[in-house]
Design a protein that fits this description.
- Two copies of one chain form a homodimer.
- Chain A is α+β, with helices and mostly antiparallel strands.
- Chain A has three domains: 15-79 and 123-288, Bira Bifunctional Protein, Domain 2 (BirA Bifunctional Protein, domain 2); 305-399, Anticodon-binding domain (Rossmann fold, 3-Layer(aba) Sandwich), CATH 3.40.50.800; 419-488, Translation Initiation Factor IF3 (2-Layer Sandwich), CATH 3.30.110.30.
- Chain A has 15 helices and 27 strands.
- Chain A has an eleven-stranded mixed sheet with strand order 3-9-10-16-13-12-11-24-27-23-22, with helices on both faces.
- In chain A, helix 3 (42-61) packs across helix 7 (183-203).
- The radius of gyration of chain A is 26 Å and the shape is globular.
- Chains A and B meet through strand 2, helix 3, strand 3, strand 4 and helix 4 of A and strand 2, helix 3, strand 3, strand 4 and strand 5 of B.
- Strand 5 of chain A pairs antiparallel with strand 5 of chain B, so a sheet runs across the interface.
Chain lengths: 491, 491
């Protein structure tokens, strides 16, 4: 096991392999027996729970309530919203039968051919269709609006190439679906939620993100506008970390959902939908971690502090002293593990907790006990310091805040150092393969967009907000361009 | 809407219809477009969230951690554990294809016949098989044990006759799966978890339950022992509210999961599994509610207090006073709604909050304001009282505790009054159709058990714990019996 820890591939040698290995070695997830579906192990799931807890509270503060809609969607629903069919319903798991039976020789089971469904059912790839079919019964008058529902659930898209957390056939997510009386209100909610995601990503996950609006090509099928937050991974590639869609009246029209306005006239309802998924765990890993393993922002770390004694045969005094420190930290709401297991050497423990990204490590030996000191190490920089035991709880508390801030600042500095304005297509083509976010003038046509993708595999990630736009010339077509877009290769 | 509220069928007229109507009228859930699958609406889901929150904390206190395993299970896994096949794998949703395509005329979608899976995948009806296939990779030595995992997820069983919450094709639940080095430890965990469920049911849901062990016929497929908690509904029928299974080494053997013991010898691993589901919401409703609607124990009520002003044109003073009371209650951790909406009459609001089972209602009019009083109503007994405004917060807090206790005591008195010792089969056959729990001597044979079921539809619910057993004579066969069992008709 100890040798395994050392075997982690270095990022510089093979970033992609480093990631895949780290997911497994840090006990976050593993491939399952089902193609493209992963098992999320307790340590990985604890990160997801922390994310859920925080996001759920943020949603509820904005008036959102949770509900649950069926896993299976009748096939015909996918025909209703024409654009939606084209974009989404292709790679999906299809339920055709509802019974297994024993084989004639009783040694195995087989599908009972007589138990065939009249209409096939699709495992939800996303739930707009079944939810809007449901909302039809909930909405009659303007007084029934807005509806602000969210669900935490599993979804399934039959992906051909999968990677743990980043792209899996089944994944966990939340999907919010809101219904409004006016376009303005639905659009405002769409923008509100991308801001909630950006705030969550930056404050909680320490992920700096660029907010913006997608090009028509990159929009969610059925949306009039898709807002996105884009994060930069350490290889300079972009990762779409969350999206929020202004759906106009498309689903209301597809499922005939109208309300009577104050003048008693029927109107189609306006919609938004928005989601983030377990993909965020992949973003966390790829943004912060290093060649020693995970680096986790304290706010999302399942375990924030580990305390390790280094004693001789008699550990009772160390146990007493460190046990008291652990108890005090827990009282402050800090999650702590006191690891005095005697079947693993300290060196193994150090490497293991580094690999798992525990933000703060305290170590105390018998000499420390005599001197009233303790060694404190921060995972983000690996800096060690011997400090007085007195006041260690306050020091740890402050250090956790420092680490959270430092991890964010480090990621932001890295990101900012790899954002380039670029006006020359030849230069762009040479440089984009090395990663980075390129801000380039775009003429707004799908042709130029397709050209860039064909030449470089890079895509328009968004038209960024919070960026002072100037007019210019499209670097590909030479045509006039009203603004710059963010272009990058992406996950 | 107001008339709808009054239309609730009375329990005495048609208990089953009363239940179905109440689920819909109280906004808990509704039938979806997919046969046998329900939509859990925000008010119903909020009850589930409260249950999850409490149970999850109780699990974690016993060392359990959450994880997530795939939704889909390869068909062949169901052939591994032979008994499991017979009992479980029959009515299940089968995924056979992984792609939809547009029809030739582009107006609809159809299943792409070329995208057929080599091996069909089954939507999990329960996860023992995929989890034990995973545990194989996690368990090598005795040091890897125990493993104590739980998952919160959706499962699917293709039920022919469904009822909201009580029996649906898809439902939400938690399933715990533990792995141990010894039979004793696995059996102890199995019993520990049924006690956790009983404690949760009684303390949180105010549901008195009988704990016991299932007969061989009623055991979970693949289990050596199934423990159960059985609750009594108001029609005297039993409802199985939670189960915990001692699985022996069955799944370890089926999936070849062994560990090296301290002598370095390979041993098969021992297992338990245990679960409760959204069915508990059905149990809550059927146990406590009345002809006016839901009665919810305060601990599980999404909204604990509603405050309604009855004013004239100028509501400002009432708003100020009642707003302050609401804020004070919230500070105490009590969930409150101040409903001063002017588009609904007070009478409508009263009926609506009664229907929704809000435990405490405060009403204040202008005369109360002058007198410094407020009207307080408790939902469980519908008793009203006019009390001083001074100290209302403490009074509400205490009343919520009283209501929680009273609801439990009421259910327990009802249950206790309908538990009968019965030694005569003719008498039993006459009386069992009217409901109630019958404690009868049983000779331990499956034949007698089958006879009772065939004659009366009643089943052996369990051999109850905490019951002073005496030997006797089986009321059906006349053979010697070592103990009494609990027999009842059930949901």
């Amino acid at each position: 096991m100890a040798t395994e820890l050392k075997d982690l591939t270095k990022r510089a040698d093979d970033y992609s392999r480093w990631y895949n290995e780290l997911v497994v070695k840090a006990d976050l997830a593993e491939q399952s027996a089902v193609r493209g579906c992963m098992v999320i192990k307790p340590y990985g799931y604890a990160i997801w729970e922390k994310m859920q807890h925080e996001l759920d509270a943020m949603f509820k503060k904005t008036g959102v309530r949770n509900a649950y809609f069926p896993l299976l969607i009748p096939k015909s629903f996918f025909s209703r919203e024409a654009e939606h069919v084209e974009g989404f319903a292709k790679e999906a798991a299809v339920v055709t039968h509802y019974r297994l039976r024993a084989t004639a020789d009783k040694t195995a089971v087989e599908v009972d051919p007589t138990a065939k469904l009249e209409e096939e059912l699709i495992i939800r790839p996303t739930s707009e269709t079944i939810i809007w079919n449901t909302y039809k019964g909930w909405i009659h008058s303007w007084r029934d609006l807005p509806i602000l529902c969210n669900q935490w659930c599993n979804v399934m898209r039959w992906e051909m190439r999968t990677r743990p957390f980043l792209r899996t056939s089944e994944f966990l997510w939340q999907e919010g679906h809101t219904a409004h009386a006016t376009a303005e209100e639905a659009e405002a909610r769409t923008q509100q939620m991308i801001k909630v995601y950006a705030d969550f990503a930056e404050r909680f996950l320490a992920l700096p993100v660029m907010q913006g609006v997608k090009s028509e090509t990159e929009r969610f099928a059925g949306a009039l506008n898709t807002y996105t937050i884009e994060a930069m991974m350490q290889d300079g590639k972009a990762l779409q970390a969350g999206t929020s869609h202004f759906l106009g009246q498309n689903f209301a029209k597809a499922f005939d959902v109208t309300y009577l306005d104050k003048e008693n006239k029927p109107q189609y309802v306006w919609a938004s939908s928005w989601g983030v998924s377990t993909r965020l765990i992949g973003a966390l890993i790829m943004t912060h971690s290093d060649d020693n393993g995970l680096v986790l922002p304290p706010k999302v770390a399942p375990l924030q502090v580990v305390i390790i004694p280094i004693g001789g045969k008699d550990m009772s005094k160390l146990d007493e002293k460190l046990g008291a420190i652990a108890a005090n930290l827990e009282k402050k709401g800090i999650s702590v593990k006191y690891d005095n297991a005697d079947n693993k050497r300290p060196g193994f423990k150090f490497a293991d907790y580094e690999l798992k990204g525990v933000p703060v490590r305290l170590v105390m030996g018998n000499r420390d006990l005599e001197n009233g000191t303790v060694e404190i190490m921060r995972r983000d920089t690996l800096e060690k310091e011997t400090v007085p035991m007195e006041g260690i709880e306050e020091r740890v508390e402050k250090l956790l805040d420092d680490i959270q801030a430092n991890i964010y600042n480090k990621a932001k500095s890295f990101r900012d150092a790899h954002v380039y304005e670029c006006d020359n297509y030849e230069e762009f083509k040479t440089r984009v393969a090395d990663g980075g976010f390129f801000l380039c003038h775009w003429d707004g046509t799908a042709e130029t967009e397709a050209q860039i993708k064909a030449d470089t595999q890079a895509t328009i990630r968004c038209v960024p907000f919070d960026f002072e736009q100037t007019e210019g010339v499209d670097m590909v077509s030479g045509k006039p361009a009203k603004y710059r877009v963010l272009i990058a290769r992406s996950y």
